[in-house]
């Protein structure tokens, strides 16, 4: 089987570089288009007591959250550019994308829109209990997306 469009979904963990390299090697092998994707998850801010939700307090919280999101977007854009630069040194042209929101949802949407035929994604070594409560993006991807998925497990050093 050949892969023409490979989507590499990474998060900002130490494993991301390893997952990226796996996708890059497959793109070289199959001479595929390569897209690197990251989802920016926004955690809700602690707003304080219900009485604080009115007036100026609510506006301050919204402004702070907006500034934090902008800062995260700038950091992610710079971080993704390191992958673009590395791939260019290897003679591979890639594109990057980021979205704000739930990773599983965005991976599914980008896969459909871009018509990826392989997703390369990492897996954290969470316990079964942690995955039950926190969920697993790789598990969601395997069960909800209609293309091949390579779940990369980083070897222990």
UniProtKB/TrEMBL annotation:
Source organism, top-level taxon: Bacteria
SUPFAM superfamilies assigned to the protein according to its UniProt record, in alphabetical order: Adenine nucleotide alpha hydrolases-like
Domain UspA: start-end pairs: 3-152
Gene3D superfamilies: HUPs
Family membership noted in the UniProt record: Belongs to the universal stress protein A family.
Name recorded for this polypeptide: UspA domain-containing protein
Annotated source species: Planktothrix tepida PCC 9214
